[in-house]
Amino acid sequence: MRTVLGRNYLYQKPYLAVLQAFIDAPGYLLFRPRKKFPAGVKKILVSRIDHLGDVFIASSILPHLKKAYPDAKLHFLAGDWAWSYLRSNANLDRILTYNSLRHNRSGGFLTSAFKALGGFVRNVWEMRKERYDLCIDLRAYPFNSIPLMTLGGGRFRVGFATGGFGFLLNRRVPYRSGVHELEHMADILCSIGINVMAKDLKPEFALSKTAVKESSRILEGLGVAPGEQFVLAHTGSGNPSKLWKREEWQKLISSLSRGCGVKVVAYDTVYNDLKDCMRLPSLISLDLFASVARNAAVFIGLDSLPAHLAASFSTPTVVVWCGINDTEQWRPVGRSVSVVNRVVDCAPCYRKNGCPEMDCMEISAADVVIEATRFLNIQRPPNVVPFNPAARGTKGVTGKQRRWKSKIRSDV
After folding, report:
1. pLDDT tens, 187-208?
2. How many CA atoms, within 13 angstroms, populate the side-chain half-sphere of residue 51?
3. Would you tell me how many other CB atoms lie within 10 Å of the CB of residue 42?
Protein backbone atom coordinates (compact mmCIF):
# COMPACT_ATOMS: atom_id res chain seq x y z
CA MET A 1 0.00 0.00 0.00
CA ARG A 2 1.45 3.35 -0.99
CA THR A 3 0.44 6.89 -1.84
CA VAL A 4 0.71 7.55 -5.57
CA LEU A 5 0.84 10.69 -7.71
CA GLY A 6 -0.68 9.14 -10.84
CA ARG A 7 -3.08 6.32 -11.52
CA ASN A 8 -2.08 3.05 -13.21
CA TYR A 9 -4.64 4.03 -15.82
CA LEU A 10 -2.29 6.76 -17.04
CA TYR A 11 0.53 4.33 -17.67
CA GLN A 12 -1.60 2.64 -20.33
CA LYS A 13 -2.33 6.04 -21.91
CA PRO A 14 1.00 7.93 -22.20
CA TYR A 15 -0.57 10.85 -24.05
CA LEU A 16 -2.90 11.43 -21.09
CA ALA A 17 0.06 11.46 -18.70
CA VAL A 18 1.83 14.06 -20.90
CA LEU A 19 -1.33 16.16 -21.20
CA GLN A 20 -1.95 16.02 -17.46
CA ALA A 21 1.65 17.04 -16.71
CA PHE A 22 1.43 19.88 -19.27
CA ILE A 23 -1.61 21.32 -17.49
CA ASP A 24 -0.67 20.56 -13.89
CA ALA A 25 2.95 21.75 -13.92
CA PRO A 26 2.18 25.47 -14.46
CA GLY A 27 -1.04 25.13 -12.47
CA TYR A 28 0.77 24.28 -9.25
CA LEU A 29 3.08 27.26 -9.80
CA LEU A 30 0.33 29.79 -10.47
CA PHE A 31 -2.53 28.73 -8.18
CA ARG A 32 -2.55 28.88 -4.40
CA PRO A 33 -6.11 28.07 -3.19
CA ARG A 34 -6.82 28.92 0.44
CA LYS A 35 -6.57 26.04 2.92
CA LYS A 36 -8.96 27.20 5.63
CA PHE A 37 -12.11 25.07 5.86
CA PRO A 38 -15.28 27.20 5.59
CA ALA A 39 -17.49 27.77 8.60
CA GLY A 40 -21.25 27.43 8.40
CA VAL A 41 -21.55 24.90 5.57
CA LYS A 42 -25.07 25.21 4.15
CA LYS A 43 -24.76 23.63 0.70
CA ILE A 44 -22.68 20.63 -0.32
CA LEU A 45 -22.06 19.24 -3.80
CA VAL A 46 -20.78 15.67 -4.24
CA SER A 47 -19.57 14.78 -7.72
CA ARG A 48 -18.93 11.41 -9.36
CA ILE A 49 -19.19 11.82 -13.13
CA ASP A 50 -18.58 8.16 -13.76
CA HIS A 51 -20.23 4.84 -14.47
CA LEU A 52 -23.28 3.78 -12.47
CA GLY A 53 -21.40 1.23 -10.38
CA ASP A 54 -18.91 3.92 -9.35
CA VAL A 55 -21.75 6.26 -8.40
CA PHE A 56 -23.35 3.47 -6.35
CA ILE A 57 -20.16 2.98 -4.31
CA ALA A 58 -19.62 6.73 -3.96
CA SER A 59 -23.12 7.18 -2.53
CA SER A 60 -21.94 5.40 0.63
CA ILE A 61 -20.59 8.72 1.94
CA LEU A 62 -23.96 10.51 1.77
CA PRO A 63 -25.45 9.34 5.12
CA HIS A 64 -22.27 10.42 6.91
CA LEU A 65 -22.29 13.84 5.25
CA LYS A 66 -25.94 14.28 6.19
CA LYS A 67 -25.22 13.30 9.78
CA ALA A 68 -22.27 15.71 10.03
CA TYR A 69 -24.22 18.56 8.37
CA PRO A 70 -27.90 17.89 9.14
CA ASP A 71 -29.02 21.40 8.14
CA ALA A 72 -27.06 21.55 4.89
CA LYS A 73 -28.56 20.96 1.45
CA LEU A 74 -26.88 17.96 -0.18
CA HIS A 75 -26.66 17.78 -3.99
CA PHE A 76 -25.08 15.16 -6.27
CA LEU A 77 -23.55 15.62 -9.74
CA ALA A 78 -23.51 12.54 -12.01
CA GLY A 79 -24.42 11.35 -15.51
CA ASP A 80 -28.12 11.12 -16.28
CA TRP A 81 -27.76 7.30 -16.37
CA ALA A 82 -27.36 7.47 -12.57
CA TRP A 83 -30.55 9.46 -12.02
CA SER A 84 -32.79 6.38 -11.67
CA TYR A 85 -30.64 5.24 -8.74
CA LEU A 86 -29.91 8.58 -7.08
CA ARG A 87 -33.56 9.65 -7.05
CA SER A 88 -34.25 6.92 -4.47
CA ASN A 89 -31.62 8.29 -2.06
CA ALA A 90 -33.35 10.05 0.82
CA ASN A 91 -30.18 11.99 1.73
CA LEU A 92 -30.21 14.05 -1.47
CA ASP A 93 -32.03 17.34 -1.98
CA ARG A 94 -31.14 17.73 -5.65
CA ILE A 95 -29.50 15.80 -8.52
CA LEU A 96 -27.49 17.63 -11.18
CA THR A 97 -26.71 15.75 -14.39
CA TYR A 98 -23.62 16.08 -16.53
CA ASN A 99 -22.84 13.57 -19.30
CA SER A 100 -19.11 13.92 -19.80
CA LEU A 101 -17.77 13.10 -23.24
CA ARG A 102 -15.77 10.13 -22.01
CA HIS A 103 -18.68 8.37 -20.31
CA ASN A 104 -21.57 9.17 -22.62
CA ARG A 105 -22.38 6.04 -24.65
CA SER A 106 -25.30 7.41 -26.61
CA GLY A 107 -24.92 9.08 -30.02
CA GLY A 108 -21.83 9.73 -32.12
CA PHE A 109 -18.69 11.63 -31.13
CA LEU A 110 -19.83 15.05 -32.37
CA THR A 111 -23.27 14.69 -30.78
CA SER A 112 -21.73 13.63 -27.47
CA ALA A 113 -19.17 16.44 -27.65
CA PHE A 114 -21.82 19.14 -28.18
CA LYS A 115 -23.94 17.68 -25.36
CA ALA A 116 -20.92 17.56 -23.03
CA LEU A 117 -20.04 21.19 -23.79
CA GLY A 118 -23.63 22.30 -23.33
CA GLY A 119 -23.89 20.35 -20.08
CA PHE A 120 -20.65 21.88 -18.80
CA VAL A 121 -21.86 25.45 -19.43
CA ARG A 122 -25.30 24.70 -17.98
CA ASN A 123 -23.84 23.22 -14.80
CA VAL A 124 -21.43 26.13 -14.30
CA TRP A 125 -24.46 28.43 -14.42
CA GLU A 126 -26.45 26.25 -12.00
CA MET A 127 -23.55 25.96 -9.55
CA ARG A 128 -23.03 29.70 -9.51
CA LYS A 129 -26.68 30.14 -8.59
CA GLU A 130 -26.45 27.53 -5.82
CA ARG A 131 -23.21 28.96 -4.32
CA TYR A 132 -21.87 25.75 -2.79
CA ASP A 133 -19.86 26.00 0.41
CA LEU A 134 -18.25 22.57 0.01
CA CYS A 135 -17.59 20.64 -3.22
CA ILE A 136 -16.31 17.06 -3.14
CA ASP A 137 -15.00 15.38 -6.29
CA LEU A 138 -14.72 11.60 -5.85
CA ARG A 139 -13.16 10.71 -9.21
CA ALA A 140 -9.44 9.86 -9.18
CA TYR A 141 -9.13 9.46 -12.96
CA PRO A 142 -8.68 12.12 -15.67
CA PHE A 143 -11.76 13.99 -16.92
CA ASN A 144 -12.97 14.83 -13.42
CA SER A 145 -15.26 17.65 -12.36
CA ILE A 146 -12.67 19.78 -10.55
CA PRO A 147 -12.58 22.52 -13.26
CA LEU A 148 -16.38 22.49 -13.34
CA MET A 149 -16.63 22.99 -9.58
CA THR A 150 -14.01 25.77 -9.72
CA LEU A 151 -15.73 27.71 -12.49
CA GLY A 152 -19.01 27.07 -10.68
CA GLY A 153 -17.74 29.10 -7.73
CA GLY A 154 -17.42 26.33 -5.11
CA ARG A 155 -15.95 27.94 -1.98
CA PHE A 156 -13.96 24.91 -0.79
CA ARG A 157 -13.03 22.02 -3.07
CA VAL A 158 -11.84 18.60 -1.90
CA GLY A 159 -10.70 15.65 -4.00
CA PHE A 160 -7.86 13.54 -5.39
CA ALA A 161 -5.10 15.10 -7.48
CA THR A 162 -4.30 11.91 -9.43
CA GLY A 163 -6.80 12.70 -12.19
CA GLY A 164 -5.33 16.13 -12.87
CA PHE A 165 -6.26 19.71 -11.85
CA GLY A 166 -5.17 19.08 -8.26
CA PHE A 167 -3.85 22.66 -8.13
CA LEU A 168 -7.48 23.87 -8.10
CA LEU A 169 -8.31 21.92 -4.93
CA ASN A 170 -8.33 23.60 -1.54
CA ARG A 171 -7.62 20.23 0.02
CA ARG A 172 -5.90 17.39 -1.83
CA VAL A 173 -6.49 13.90 -0.46
CA PRO A 174 -3.60 11.41 -0.92
CA TYR A 175 -4.57 8.47 -3.14
CA ARG A 176 -3.49 5.08 -1.83
CA SER A 177 -2.92 2.18 -4.19
CA GLY A 178 -3.81 -1.40 -3.32
CA VAL A 179 -6.89 -0.62 -1.21
CA HIS A 180 -10.62 -0.95 -1.81
CA GLU A 181 -12.57 1.97 -3.26
CA LEU A 182 -14.44 2.35 0.02
CA GLU A 183 -11.09 3.12 1.69
CA HIS A 184 -10.73 6.05 -0.69
CA MET A 185 -14.24 7.25 0.20
CA ALA A 186 -13.31 7.05 3.89
CA ASP A 187 -10.14 9.07 3.21
CA ILE A 188 -12.25 11.83 1.63
CA LEU A 189 -14.53 12.02 4.66
CA CYS A 190 -11.64 11.98 7.13
CA SER A 191 -10.00 14.86 5.25
CA ILE A 192 -12.95 17.11 6.15
CA GLY A 193 -13.14 15.96 9.76
CA ILE A 194 -15.74 13.17 9.47
CA ASN A 195 -13.89 10.26 11.05
CA VAL A 196 -15.20 7.00 9.61
CA MET A 197 -13.61 3.75 8.49
CA ALA A 198 -14.26 1.82 5.29
CA LYS A 199 -16.22 -0.80 7.24
CA ASP A 200 -18.66 1.95 8.23
CA LEU A 201 -19.47 2.73 4.60
CA LYS A 202 -22.16 0.83 2.76
CA PRO A 203 -23.90 1.76 -0.49
CA GLU A 204 -27.66 1.25 -0.26
CA PHE A 205 -30.64 1.07 -2.58
CA ALA A 206 -34.03 2.09 -1.20
CA LEU A 207 -36.74 -0.14 -2.70
CA SER A 208 -40.21 1.25 -3.26
CA LYS A 209 -43.26 -0.69 -2.06
CA THR A 210 -44.50 -0.76 -5.63
CA ALA A 211 -41.31 -2.44 -6.84
CA VAL A 212 -41.47 -5.06 -4.09
CA LYS A 213 -45.05 -6.00 -5.01
CA GLU A 214 -44.41 -5.93 -8.75
CA SER A 215 -41.26 -8.06 -8.50
CA SER A 216 -43.18 -10.69 -6.53
CA ARG A 217 -45.84 -10.72 -9.22
CA ILE A 218 -43.21 -11.13 -11.95
CA LEU A 219 -41.51 -14.01 -10.15
CA GLU A 220 -44.80 -15.81 -9.57
CA GLY A 221 -45.60 -15.36 -13.25
CA LEU A 222 -42.30 -17.06 -14.08
CA GLY A 223 -43.13 -19.98 -11.80
CA VAL A 224 -41.20 -19.02 -8.67
CA ALA A 225 -43.43 -19.48 -5.63
CA PRO A 226 -43.19 -17.04 -2.68
CA GLY A 227 -40.27 -18.07 -0.47
CA GLU A 228 -38.89 -20.53 -3.05
CA GLN A 229 -35.15 -20.52 -3.66
CA PHE A 230 -33.91 -19.31 -7.03
CA VAL A 231 -30.64 -18.19 -8.57
CA LEU A 232 -30.53 -14.86 -10.40
CA ALA A 233 -28.07 -14.72 -13.31
CA HIS A 234 -27.16 -11.43 -15.00
CA THR A 235 -25.16 -11.79 -18.23
CA GLY A 236 -24.63 -8.12 -19.11
CA SER A 237 -22.03 -5.47 -18.44
CA GLY A 238 -21.65 -1.85 -19.47
CA ASN A 239 -18.23 -2.81 -20.85
CA PRO A 240 -18.45 -5.46 -23.64
CA SER A 241 -14.87 -6.57 -22.87
CA LYS A 242 -16.07 -7.98 -19.55
CA LEU A 243 -18.63 -10.35 -21.10
CA TRP A 244 -18.37 -14.09 -20.38
CA LYS A 245 -18.77 -16.68 -23.14
CA ARG A 246 -22.30 -17.79 -23.98
CA GLU A 247 -21.36 -21.50 -23.75
CA GLU A 248 -20.06 -21.03 -20.20
CA TRP A 249 -23.26 -19.27 -19.15
CA GLN A 250 -25.23 -22.14 -20.63
CA LYS A 251 -23.17 -24.78 -18.83
CA LEU A 252 -23.56 -22.88 -15.57
CA ILE A 253 -27.34 -22.54 -15.89
CA SER A 254 -27.86 -26.13 -17.02
CA SER A 255 -25.75 -27.46 -14.16
CA LEU A 256 -27.75 -25.51 -11.59
CA SER A 257 -31.20 -26.21 -13.02
CA ARG A 258 -30.77 -29.82 -14.18
CA GLY A 259 -28.06 -31.08 -11.89
CA CYS A 260 -28.90 -29.22 -8.69
CA GLY A 261 -32.64 -28.84 -9.21
CA VAL A 262 -32.69 -25.12 -8.42
CA LYS A 263 -34.64 -22.65 -10.50
CA VAL A 264 -32.59 -20.11 -12.44
CA VAL A 265 -33.99 -16.70 -13.35
CA ALA A 266 -31.89 -14.93 -15.99
CA TYR A 267 -31.73 -11.30 -16.94
CA ASP A 268 -30.14 -11.95 -20.32
CA THR A 269 -29.87 -8.87 -22.51
CA VAL A 270 -26.72 -10.16 -24.26
CA TYR A 271 -27.51 -13.56 -25.77
CA ASN A 272 -31.31 -13.81 -25.39
CA ASP A 273 -31.34 -17.54 -26.08
CA LEU A 274 -30.11 -19.26 -22.93
CA LYS A 275 -32.02 -22.45 -22.08
CA ASP A 276 -33.01 -24.17 -18.80
CA CYS A 277 -33.90 -20.83 -17.21
CA MET A 278 -36.73 -18.36 -16.81
CA ARG A 279 -36.09 -14.93 -18.29
CA LEU A 280 -36.92 -11.56 -16.78
CA PRO A 281 -38.42 -8.93 -19.11
CA SER A 282 -35.65 -7.16 -21.03
CA LEU A 283 -36.92 -3.66 -20.16
CA ILE A 284 -37.28 -4.19 -16.40
CA SER A 285 -36.55 -1.07 -14.34
CA LEU A 286 -33.59 -0.80 -11.98
CA ASP A 287 -35.98 -0.65 -9.04
CA LEU A 288 -37.66 -3.94 -10.05
CA PHE A 289 -34.36 -5.66 -10.76
CA ALA A 290 -33.01 -4.62 -7.37
CA SER A 291 -36.07 -6.11 -5.67
CA VAL A 292 -35.59 -9.41 -7.54
CA ALA A 293 -31.90 -9.43 -6.57
CA ARG A 294 -32.77 -8.94 -2.92
CA ASN A 295 -35.03 -12.03 -2.97
CA ALA A 296 -32.59 -14.31 -4.81
CA ALA A 297 -30.90 -17.16 -2.94
CA VAL A 298 -27.74 -16.49 -4.99
CA PHE A 299 -26.80 -13.84 -7.53
CA ILE A 300 -24.31 -14.62 -10.33
CA GLY A 301 -23.01 -11.83 -12.55
CA LEU A 302 -20.04 -9.91 -13.90
CA ASP A 303 -17.96 -7.02 -12.59
CA SER A 304 -20.77 -4.50 -12.90
CA LEU A 305 -23.39 -2.59 -10.91
CA PRO A 306 -25.82 -5.55 -10.45
CA ALA A 307 -23.18 -7.49 -8.48
CA HIS A 308 -22.63 -4.53 -6.13
CA LEU A 309 -26.38 -4.09 -5.87
CA ALA A 310 -27.00 -7.72 -4.91
CA ALA A 311 -24.16 -7.73 -2.39
CA SER A 312 -25.56 -4.59 -0.73
CA PHE A 313 -28.73 -6.57 0.10
CA SER A 314 -26.55 -9.34 1.63
CA THR A 315 -27.62 -11.64 -1.19
CA PRO A 316 -24.86 -14.28 -1.64
CA THR A 317 -23.01 -13.04 -4.72
CA VAL A 318 -20.70 -14.82 -7.16
CA VAL A 319 -18.79 -12.55 -9.54
CA VAL A 320 -17.17 -13.76 -12.76
CA TRP A 321 -14.30 -11.31 -12.69
CA CYS A 322 -12.59 -9.75 -15.70
CA GLY A 323 -8.87 -8.95 -15.51
CA ILE A 324 -9.33 -5.31 -16.52
CA ASN A 325 -9.97 -4.14 -12.95
CA ASP A 326 -8.21 -4.90 -9.69
CA THR A 327 -10.26 -7.24 -7.48
CA GLU A 328 -8.84 -5.69 -4.31
CA GLN A 329 -10.11 -2.25 -5.28
CA TRP A 330 -13.47 -2.96 -6.89
CA ARG A 331 -14.86 -6.24 -5.57
CA PRO A 332 -18.42 -6.02 -4.19
CA VAL A 333 -18.65 -5.70 -0.43
CA GLY A 334 -21.04 -7.91 1.48
CA ARG A 335 -21.35 -10.72 3.99
CA SER A 336 -21.24 -13.43 1.30
CA VAL A 337 -19.25 -12.52 -1.79
CA SER A 338 -17.13 -14.83 -3.94
CA VAL A 339 -14.97 -13.64 -6.82
CA VAL A 340 -14.01 -16.21 -9.46
CA ASN A 341 -11.23 -15.11 -11.78
CA ARG A 342 -8.47 -16.56 -13.89
CA VAL A 343 -4.95 -15.67 -12.76
CA VAL A 344 -2.93 -14.22 -15.64
CA ASP A 345 0.28 -12.20 -15.50
CA CYS A 346 -1.19 -9.18 -17.31
CA ALA A 347 -4.12 -8.69 -14.91
CA PRO A 348 -5.18 -6.19 -13.83
CA CYS A 349 -4.42 -4.34 -17.07
CA TYR A 350 -6.60 -1.23 -16.45
CA ARG A 351 -7.39 -1.10 -20.18
CA LYS A 352 -10.93 0.05 -20.83
CA ASN A 353 -11.31 -2.21 -23.87
CA GLY A 354 -9.13 -5.05 -22.65
CA CYS A 355 -7.09 -6.91 -25.28
CA PRO A 356 -7.96 -9.11 -28.31
CA GLU A 357 -7.19 -12.34 -26.45
CA MET A 358 -8.96 -11.65 -23.12
CA ASP A 359 -7.39 -14.77 -21.58
CA CYS A 360 -8.54 -13.50 -18.18
CA MET A 361 -12.13 -14.39 -19.15
CA GLU A 362 -11.32 -18.03 -19.91
CA ILE A 363 -13.07 -18.98 -16.68
CA SER A 364 -14.62 -22.40 -16.17
CA ALA A 365 -18.33 -22.66 -15.46
CA ALA A 366 -17.52 -25.52 -13.09
CA ASP A 367 -15.74 -23.18 -10.69
CA VAL A 368 -18.70 -20.83 -10.67
CA VAL A 369 -21.08 -23.74 -10.05
CA ILE A 370 -19.03 -24.79 -7.03
CA GLU A 371 -19.27 -21.34 -5.46
CA ALA A 372 -22.98 -20.99 -6.22
CA THR A 373 -23.85 -24.39 -4.75
CA ARG A 374 -21.71 -23.65 -1.70
CA PHE A 375 -23.90 -20.65 -0.97
CA LEU A 376 -27.06 -22.65 -1.71
CA ASN A 377 -26.00 -25.36 0.73
CA ILE A 378 -25.45 -22.80 3.49
CA GLN A 379 -29.06 -21.65 3.08
CA ARG A 380 -30.72 -25.03 2.41
CA PRO A 381 -33.66 -25.98 4.64
CA PRO A 382 -33.15 -28.71 7.28
CA ASN A 383 -33.26 -32.36 6.13
CA VAL A 384 -32.51 -31.43 2.53
CA VAL A 385 -29.61 -33.30 0.89
CA PRO A 386 -26.82 -30.83 0.00
CA PHE A 387 -26.17 -30.08 -3.65
CA ASN A 388 -23.13 -31.92 -5.00
CA PRO A 389 -22.11 -30.48 -8.35
CA ALA A 390 -19.25 -32.97 -8.60
CA ALA A 391 -21.72 -35.84 -8.61
CA ARG A 392 -24.76 -34.37 -10.31
CA GLY A 393 -25.29 -32.72 -13.65
CA THR A 394 -21.89 -31.20 -14.38
CA LYS A 395 -20.97 -33.47 -17.25
CA GLY A 396 -19.40 -31.38 -19.97
CA VAL A 397 -18.33 -28.63 -17.59
CA THR A 398 -15.08 -30.19 -16.42
CA GLY A 399 -12.25 -31.64 -18.49
CA LYS A 400 -10.66 -29.40 -21.07
CA GLN A 401 -12.65 -26.40 -19.94
CA ARG A 402 -10.77 -26.54 -16.62
CA ARG A 403 -7.29 -26.67 -18.13
CA TRP A 404 -6.73 -23.22 -16.65
CA LYS A 405 -7.15 -23.05 -12.91
CA SER A 406 -9.36 -20.21 -11.74
CA LYS A 407 -8.64 -18.29 -8.61
CA ILE A 408 -11.53 -18.04 -6.17
CA ARG A 409 -11.67 -15.34 -3.50
CA SER A 410 -14.48 -15.51 -0.97
CA ASP A 411 -15.88 -13.51 1.91
CA VAL A 412 -18.41 -15.51 3.94
Report:
1. 999 999 999 999 999 999 999 9
2. 14
3. 13
List, for residues 279-299, the tens digit of each pLDDT value. Answer: 999 889 999 999 999 999 999
- Alpha helices (H) in 132-232, listed in sequence order: 146-151, 181-191, 209-222
**Pair (190, 286) in one structural domain:** no
- Outline where DSSP puts E strands in 220-349: 230-234, 263-267, 278-279, 298-302, 317-320, 337-342
Identify the bridge partners of residue 338 per DSSP, sorted by sequence position.
318, 410
State phi, psi for 33 to the nearest 5 degrees.
-65, 145
| DSSP calls for 351-385 | -TT--SS-GGG---HHHHHHHHHHHHHHHPPTTPP
Give every CB contact of residue 263 below 8 A, 6+ residues apart in sequence.
Answer: 223, 224, 228, 229, 230, 231, 257, 278
Kindly list the distances between the CA atom of residue 57 and the CA atoms of 86, 171, 286, 300, 307, in Å, as whole numbers in the listed order.
Answer: 12, 22, 16, 19, 12
Domain's final residue, options 181, 200, 219:
200
Residue 283 confidence (pLDDT): 85
Instruction: State pTM to two decimals.
Output: 0.87
CATH of the domain at 71: 3.40.50.2000
Same domain, 178 and 248: no
What is the Cβ-side half-sphere exposure of residue 235, based on CA atoms within 13 angstroms? Answer: 24
Exposed/middle/buried for residue 283 (C-beta within 10 Å: 0-12, 13-18, 19+) = exposed
256 and 179 in a common domain: no
Residues 238 and 383 in one domain: yes
Structural domain boundaries enclosing 124: 2-200
- How many domains would you assign to the chain? 2
Which of 166, 200, 234 is where one domain is finished? 200
Based on the fold, state whether residues 143 and 236 are members of the same structural domain. no
The set of long-range contacts for 376-380, using a CB threshold of 8 Å and a minimum separation of 24, is 376/229, 376/231, 376/260, 376/262, 376/297, 376/298, 378/316, 378/336, 378/412, 379/229, 379/297, 379/316
Check: CB of residue 308 under 8 Å from CB of residue 332.
yes
Q: What residue ranges of the chain have pLDDT lower than 50?
A: 1-6, 383-384, 391-412
Helix (H, G, I), strand (E, B) or coil at 256: helix
Give me the pLDDT at residue 59, please. Answer: 97
146 and 255 co-located in one domain: no
Question: What is the Cα 3 distance to its own chain's centre?
Answer: 23
**What are the distances in angstroms from CA 327 to CA 36, 88, 110, 322, 339?**
37, 28, 35, 9, 8
One domain for residues 193 and 316:
no
> Do 190 and 107 belong to one domain?
yes
